Amino acid sequence: MIGLPDGVAACLFDLDGVLTSTATLHEIAWQRTFDAFLATRTDGDRAPFTKHDYTAFVDGRPRADGVRTFLTSRGIRLPEGEPDDTPDAATVNGVGNRKNEALLALIDERGIQPYPGSVAYLNAARDAGLKIGVVTSSANGEHVLDVADLAEFVQARVDGITIADEHLRGKPAPDSFLAGARALGVAPSEAAVFEDALSGVEAGRAGGFRYVVGVNRADQAEQLRDHGADVVVDDLADLLGGSR
């Protein structure tokens, strides 16, 4: 009764935008960071950061990949720098760390709420005996799960720290989801991926996973299907009550 095909033994959930509403906070943090950064430049396209920019270049990607991809779209190149660069450094890592500061401030200010339908689905998946993992590009995955009171559901977590430590390619490459499947002891053909980002859906399809669920939080249902989703829902609770 959880809307998955036979043979699925594990669920791999993206975090921001699938289980929690923090994707909105990420978008705001990116917008504030990039708009402030672009205002300091004399090169490239300095138009304000848009929702299209977030979806096309940033959403679902590891932080440094998002900085690099967006700035490339604007004709701006920065040195990589180091992971511990200060937030005011004019480097890929510096801009990424500035965004993380903005995100953590928003979390402190607004808190984190899990989607009620996602909590209902997590309970149903656990009751059905499925293994549960979280695969997120965010380095704040552990903190977000704790604040949202979701950690109790999660048997394995792959996050931005894991991606960096294990030198995994970020989404849309399938590496992080494949690492999540390994951590749960299942093959990709035994796991379902749940994603709201186009890059994440593409990663699930590229990894050969049994089922890819696109979660339509940004009015992009057709694009989610085009990138490889087997089914698209507006909320995970839509999957409850029967198979699809």
UniProtKB/TrEMBL annotation:
Keywords: Carbohydrate metabolism, Hydrolase, Isomerase, Magnesium, Metal-binding, Phosphoprotein. It comes from Actinokineospora auranticolor. This is Beta-phosphoglucomutase. Pfam families: Hydrolase. InterPro entries: B-phosphoglucomutase_hydrolase, Beta-PGM-like, HAD-like_sf, HAD-SF_hydro_IA, HAD_sf, PGP-like_dom2. SUPFAM superfamilies: HAD-like. Its EC number is 5.4.2.6. It is an enzyme of class 5 (isomerase). GO terms for molecular function: beta-phosphoglucomutase activity; hydrolase activity; metal ion binding. Signal peptide: none annotated. Belongs to the HAD-like hydrolase superfamily. CbbY/CbbZ/Gph/YieH family. Its cofactor is Mg(2+). It catalyses: beta-D-glucose 1-phosphate = beta-D-glucose 6-phosphate. NCBIfam families: HAD-SF-IA-v3 (TIGR01509), PGMB-YQAB-SF (TIGR02009).
